[in-house]
Amino acid sequence: MRWRRCGEDAALLDCESLDEMRAAHATVLAARPAGVVDLVPGARSLLVVGGVAAVRALLEDADLAHPPAAEPREVTLDVRYDGEDLSLIAADAGISPDAVVSLHTEAVYTVAFTGFAPGFGYLTGLPAPLRQPRLETPRTRVPAGSVGLAGEFTGVYPRESPGGWRLLGHTSATLFDPHADPPALFAPGDRVRFRSVR
């Protein structure tokens, strides 16, 4: 791990892996050091706003191989598996479209971090056959609620936007509502399941 200063009251912790970032995030959340205003997890980084000295001291002595476990919140999303890339995903995995749906719905995912757009969660736990690259040419328009996959992640587009993830289907769930409390459906550490509906 390596620290980089970010302005007067923040620092960015560069981690060796997604697992190390998740362990550091869980450790800080459990300890709640004084002065910490915000934590922003990334794929391999953790931004600490306020209380940086306390967090550094905490993590220097922490056993990140055995981070504290919290009881995760669980979210289930109903999905119509009719995505534009379902056949492509199946062909690249060497399985049928029905088998793709089975693999995607049988797995339990964890929100590793959020970003790209408000409410967009990067979910880990994707079965190995579904770990596929982004599209060579991104789409200029991906509809809100589209469920996709790219690399080791699966996720849901919270609003219409450009995007290059392979699309499995779509959900009618609201992932981001600026008037709700909290506004985002997903938070780091949440567990997510997908349920196939017709």
Automatic annotation (TrEMBL):
Pfam families: CT_C_D. SMART domains: AHS1 (SM00796). Keywords: ATP-binding, Hydrolase, Nucleotide-binding. InterPro entries: CT_C_D (IPR003833), Cyclophilin-like_dom_sf (IPR029000), PxpB (IPR010016). The keyword RNA-binding does not apply. One of its GO terms (molecular function) is hydrolase activity. Residues 1-186 form the Carboxyltransferase domain. This is Allophanate hydrolase subunit 1.
